[in-house]
Prior knowledge:
Oligomer: single chain
Number of domains: 2
Domain FAD dependent oxidoreductase: 3-391
EC number: 1.-.-.-
Keywords: Oxidoreductase
Enzyme class: oxidoreductase
Bound molecules: flavin-adenine dinucleotide
CATH topology of the largest domain: D-Amino Acid Oxidase, Chain A, domain 2
Protein name: FAD-dependent oxidoreductase
Amino acid sequence: MQDILVLGAGMVGVSTALALQGRGHRVVLADRRAPGEETSYGNAGVIQAEAAEPYAMPRDLPTLLRYALGGSNDLVWSPAGIAAMAPALWRYFRASSPARHRAVSAVYSQLTAQACTAHAPLIEASGSGNLIAREGLAILHRDPKAFEVAASEARRLQEAYGVPFRAVAGAAWMREEPSLLKAPAGVIHYTGSWSCSDPGGLTKAYAALFESRGGTIAAADAATLRRTSSGWQVAGAEGPVSAQAVVLCLGPWTGQLLKRFGISVPMVLKRGYHAHYQAPQMPRRPFLDAANGIVVAGMRKGLRLSSGAALVAHGAKADPRQLRRAEASVGGLIELGPRIEEPQWSGTRPCLPGMLPMVGPVPRETGLWVNFGHGHQGFTLGPVTADILARALDGELKQDATGSLPHVLSPASQLS
Ligand SMILES: Cc1cc2nc3c(=O)[nH]c(=O)nc-3n(C[C@H](O)[C@H](O)[C@H](O)COP(=O)(O)OP(=O)(O)OC[C@H]3O[C@@H](n4cnc5c(N)ncnc54)[C@H](O)[C@@H]3O)c2cc1C
């Protein structure tokens, strides 16, 4: 048994604390905020078993031109954002070649395939079943050609990775989804995915489970992390917190902290926004409006629209133009109702150019571990990579000759 400090209480950190605790370690979970209040709060809440392939950077000229000219709502960018992330974007571009993406997907699909099974016992033990729908995820296509292409893509995913789906014509879908105002051309219904009506609430429920099992939650700023003669220490609000090992689960902030230890990790930080509406009727299951890159999901707080990616500089002013455009077009598909007044939320998908999360020990820094870089699917994958991290920390998973653990990017092979 070790004393372990987990820094960052998003879905990844909370799951990591639970996995380590489950193996008999004494764990302190520390964050500068309460659990589940950053990226893990504001996402679209889908446990994406269908996401067998990580999101690659498009490489074809027409799509790149469309992005460059601002003709797409699923991605926007600013010159400062592109300049700040240029080295990471270049690596991302190279890693997105068909051959490399295929190789990464062979691994990634094994992670997402375990997602629902890994969440299930935590949902049960934390009494959160009321937040979860096992109704799948729908991808709505307005254009018949796009629907045809999507159907053949879904068939490919089914054949390659066993991802279950139904292709449903728009008129038939209207009978299944009475909240829609008009029929799309067609819908790909990925039936194996789950969804959560309060992602921050689920993260908090997992954190409460960790506490109820004897874990400690502390307020601390990770920036105070320092090495001691016996391990690691942060300055907590109620005094120093010491441990033999520390696991960094700081999502999009992990790269900043590693820099303090002279370690450089190029990250692609994809900002996203959400807004809530008092819709008179919620959809039965979340759906992606494919033409707009917007996910529409019924949440406890209201109908949530979640935007695609904005490649902007860290700390850039909020620019929720993707939400504004979506509001206009999604409003024709489903009655949004009045927008709920709240400060504009934004969060950042912590993406690594190699498209796999980075999990494992940091080379040459005894007792320093990382579990971050879950990109578009951190809410999905939290419990899955938590288990990998915990098994590796207990010496049950061996690194190969390149320093890699199974299914993830290991720091030894990635960090400079
Ligand atoms: C719009 C949008 C929609 C998304 N939809 C989905 C979806 O449907 N399904 C899915 O699987 N994923 C989705 N994602 C991605 C997912 O939300 C993230 O991958 C995931 O939340 C990352 O979790 P995390 O625990 O790594 O990071 P976070 O949840 O951000 O947690 C990091 C924690 O570190 C803490 N922290 C940071 N700095 C410090 C410090 N100095 N000291 C102490 N604590 C610190 C923060 O307070 C925070 O609690 C979406 C993301 C966005 C933006």
